[in-house]
Automatic annotation (TrEMBL):
It comes from Streptomyces microflavus. This is RNA polymerase sigma factor SigF. Residues 1-23 are annotated as: Disordered. It holds the Pfam family Sigma70_r2. The lineage of its organism: Bacteria, Bacillati, Actinomycetota, Actinomycetes, Kitasatosporales. It comes from the Bacteria. Coiled coil: none annotated. Residues 87-100 form the RNA polymerase sigma-70 domain.
Amino acid sequence: MSISTETATAAADPTVPSGLPRIDDPLKIAPKDARALGALFFEQLQVLEEGTHEYQYARNTLIEMNLSLVQFAAKRFRNRGDGQMEDIIQVGTIGLIKAIDRFELSREVEFTSFAVPYIVGEIKRFFRDSTWSVHVPRRLQELRITLAKAKEELTTVLGRDPGTAELAEHLGIEEEEVIDGLIASNGYTAGSLDLPLGSDRSSAETVTYGDIKGDWDPAMELVEDLHALAPLLELLDEREREIIRMRFGQDMTQAQIGEHLGISQMHVSRILSRLLTKLRTDMLTQK
């Protein structure tokens, strides 16, 4: 192991524990030297009191010396795009810190072998939990990955995309669960409403998804109300239903209804008021 005197010197700094070299720039330590120094630093980390300057020096130096492991693990996620690489490095560093805090020399395993699964696991958890456009339960997030693998395997065997029943049989789960997973997959990415429809994106008259997106239709609430009202109308007697039908179905005035039934307009008004109050109360009770 060759470490220059500029990089590692005898401990003259009171924050440097006895028996450890002072490393001015841990980031410049070669991976091979980091592995050799690691055992020495981990040995001291186990006997130093947590929270002291000496402990922080040993722990922070271990983190910085092993950041190359994060870079190494992050390479397998290059296809996620350069824009996310900074986040990947940060999340991977969290995995490295967890590995350092949990590593024990008694494991008789190389720290690199111990740390890389922690780093990769933390990055995968980041993509699983943080990159979904719509939040879905973790069970469905994991099912999406399982379905993707199963679909790839069956496509190779069948020479075509597998159906829901085939996926369910292959995975040994219910078809309804497969459907839930496929629906949940739609929440992984979301497109902008400003994206144009079709391939012609240069036209000034380009229609976007936002232009055709449905808006709230107040008539839908009316349909729901009428659906809830129908069984309540069946509970009225024939004369009451006829009054409701004439007033709201045929748009007759109270005077016209009174003349048709041979009663006064005031009487019609009282009947309608009683019926509407009853129907409104019964609908609210149903809700």
